[in-house]
Structure formats: structure tokens, C-alpha cells
Amino acid sequence: MRLTFGSALKGGYVTTPTETTGKNARRVIVASAAGNFVEWFDFSIYGLAAATLATVFFAPGSESTGLLGVFAVYGVAFLARPAGAVFFGRIGDRLGRRAALSLSIIIMGASTAAIGLLPGWATVGVAAPALLVLCRLMQGFSAGGEYSGAVTFVVEHAPERRRGLWLGLLGMSTLAGPTAATMVILGAKSISGDAYADWGWRLPFLLGGVIAIIGLFLRRGVEESPVFQKAQAEEPVSNRGSLGELLRLYWRPIVVVAVYFATVGVIAHMFLGYIPTYMTTVGGVGMQEALAIMTVLSIIGMALTPITGTLTDRIGRRPLLRLGLAGVVVLMVPAYLLVGTGHPILMGIGLLGFMIPMGLLGSGALAILEILPARVRYSGIAIPYNVTYAVFAGTAPLVSESLVTWTGNQLCPAFYGAGIGLVGLLVLWRWIPETRGADLVQGAGFGDSLDARPAERATEGGTAASR
């Protein structure tokens, strides 16, 4: 039985789990990847166009002041993500993963296209950055339910021994978004030429809206997660707990999710939102050359994600996660030093210092998905993920630029990233268990030494909800 968006919002889901294989498997992966692609495409084109947006939406003045304004608005979007996480997490855990994912991509596509239609400072003055902030808030709100829903949806459809591979294939869209954004920006510059600052920069944002429409139609053609169907059959929606119950019963997994995504978020958004500017201002290369180098590295990263996903299926989640965290600590400062040389080959090697740890850290996402039970998985991932992204990831470009401005030391962002990585290494080395083969309805839990067993938590949750 297929599920429409409208029927999902009304609770019209099936309750008989089915195995996802063959053509249906490809549909699930592509449909989930579509929205994840749009999220990263949208956020990437904003970061890549930062220098132009500074001149379009902010008052004429110093370049550094305009960039600080653009990066501040970049971070504003993340302030809305926690609200979106609560909203979409509630829908995803009660009405189904598909309903939440369909609604999130609608809002994301509309707000992205709207940025491409906004007037600039020269036309409406101070209203220009205000309208930009509004659109970014809507982007952030919709993103609050996108990634967490996509990874949940894919893993809950995946065969037990191929969860890592499926999540790795989804992870390709995380890098495909920035890669496509880079290529589209380069294409827009080529098409518009000297008029890029006038209208050429608008083309990527308008294209983002079109891609979102395609993603919506893809999502309307796939089945609901069989794990959600099974969980719903065992525990009706009326017994699902509140946000307070989630925080009370599952606070340890939430802390783990928060630390994990704080680490991943800072590294990812340094790479996407700050490094292109660093390459031009410190490395002294042209923006087009910088974007070309990043495109090549992103394509390499795309090829690595399904490989690391397959490795997690063979050797487990924890070894790769630990190696990735150690890589962040060890490689961050050398990466910045190499990127700052301005030599294309050395810059490429330095960027690998971002790409390799990011690829290895993807194994942690699978572990935290398997820790949580189905009844709270969407919310349990979405809320800590988006809160930490608001605090750490969304502010990473602004903090990086501010540290350089305040200290005059171009390596301060590298020390900041390495410090975040060290905290993640110390916490997650101990607190993330090996979860390979976990039951996705009940969740793996942490073991008796760190948390109640999943069955005990589910019983306690059901008792609390029935009071």
C-alpha cells in the first residue's frame, strides 16, 4: 500500500512491514537523498556566494564588515533549526517519516527560491538584509527536520547487514550538494560574466527551488519505513511520549548525539562556509580556482562515503568513528597551513585533511541511529542535532572570521576546530557503543553501565504516557 502526503498527515499509514529490496530500495535512497541534497546545496550556495551577497544585501563599506554580516545571517538560519526539529520530529515519530520529510522539502524549496528573488540594499535599503534573514530562518526551520528524517528513513528501510552502505549512499548526497553548488556557481559566473553581482548570483537559488519540487515528487512515490510501521503496530500514536519524556528518559543518548554533531558540524561548516573565503583571502587564489579545487575534493569525498559505509558493515561503527575523531585533532592545523600556501596541489592535500575525517565520522551517525528506539528516533536525532548545529556549526564561519579579526592569527580557526575535535574524541571514545546488528524497533541502548536497557525504557515510557 502506498502512502500519500495527505494521508500521512491524517495518520493513514499501513501497519504491515514489508522488505525493501530492488527497485524500491533505489527509490528510497534517491528520494531520501533528494531532500538532503537540496539542504546542502542551498546552504552551500549561500557560503560560496558570500562575497557577492555582502555587496548586494549590506550597506557599502569595508569588505570585512560585509562578510561578517553575511556570515551572521548564515548563522541565523541555524537558530530556527531547533524549532524545526521539535516540529518535524513530532510529526515524524507520530504520523510517519514520509509526512515530515515531504513537508520539510516544500518549505526549504520555497525559501531558497525566494532568496533568488529578493531586492538588494540599493533597491530597498535596510529591508534587504531583513528579508534575507527571514528567508534564512525559513530555510533553517525546514532543515530542522531534513537530515535527521532522511537518515532515519534510509536506515529503517535498509537490510540489517547493509545499513552502513545505504547510509553511505545517502551520505554521497551530502557532498553532492556542495559539489553541485560549486559547479552551478561557476556556471552562473560564466553565463552572467560581469553581471554576476547584478543577477547571476540569483540563478543558483532559483535552481534550488526547482530541485526541491523534483524531490517532493520522488518522496511521494515511496513506502513508509517498515520499522516505523512495526513500531506503530506495537505502540499506538496515543502512547507516544512528550518532549519532556524524551529528555528525561533518553538524556544520555541525546548528550552523545549532541557531542557527535557538534564535532561534525564545526568541521563540515568550516569546509563549506569558511574555507572558500580563506582560500581567497589567505591563500591568494581566485574564487574560481578555489571552487574548482573544492569540487575535485568533494567528488573524491563522494566516492569515499559508500566505501566507509561498507566498512562499518564489516568491522563495526566504533573503529571508524574513533579514527575520524583522532584525524580531526591531528590534521586540522596542518590542513589550514597547507590551504594557506596558495599552491593548488598543497591546497588540495590540505583539504583532504577535512575530507578524510569527515568521511570516517559518518559511521557515528549510524551508531546513534541504532542506539535510539523507533518511537523517539526522529526526535531523538533531530533535536540535539539541530541545537548543536545552531550553537556550533552555524556559527563556525562567523567564529572563524571573528577569531582572525580579533587576534590577527590566521590559524585560530584551525585551533578552534581541533579543540572541538578533542572534546568529541574524549566523550565519544567512551560513550558510543558498538551497535552493528542492533534491533531498530527497540534500539541498542548503552548497556547496563550507562543506561537502562531499551526494553526497560520502552516500558517506562509507555507507563509514563498512560498516566
Notes on the structure:
With 467 residues, the chain is mainly alpha-helical. The chain has two domains: 21-224, Up-down Bundle (Growth Hormone, Chain: A), CATH 1.20.1250; 243-444, Growth Hormone, Chain: A (Up-down Bundle), CATH 1.20.1250.20. The protein contains 23 helices and no strands. The protein has helices at 5-9, 22-48, 50-57, 63-79, 81-94, 97-115, 121-124, 127-143, 146-157, 163-192, 196-200, 202-219, 226-234, 243-249, 251-273, 275-281, 287-315, 318-339, 344-371, 377-393, 396-407, 412-431, 454-466. α5 (81-94) packs antiparallel against α20 (377-393) and α10 packs antiparallel against α17. The radius of gyration is 21 Å and the shape is globular. It starts with a helix and ends with a helix.
Features:
globular; Growth Hormone, Chain: A; 2 domains; 467 residues; mainly alpha; disordered N terminus
Which strand-content bin applies to the residues?
under 5%
Low-confidence stretches: 1-17, 447-467
Q: What is the count of β-strands?
A: 0
What value does the Rg take, in angstroms?
Answer: 21 Å
> Could you name the CATH topology of the largest domain?
Growth Hormone, Chain: A
**CATH H level, superfamily name of the largest domain:** MFS general substrate transporter like domains
Number of helical elements: 23
Concise summary:
The chain is mainly alpha-helical and 467 residues long. It has 23 helices and no strands.
Task: Explain the layout of strands and helices.
Elements: H1 5-9, H2 22-48, H3 50-57, H4 63-79, H5 81-94, H6 97-115, H7 121-124, H8 127-143, H9 146-157, H10 163-192, H11 196-200, H12 202-219, H13 226-234, H14 243-249, H15 251-273, H16 275-281, H17 287-315, H18 318-339, H19 344-371, H20 377-393, H21 396-407, H22 412-431, H23 454-466
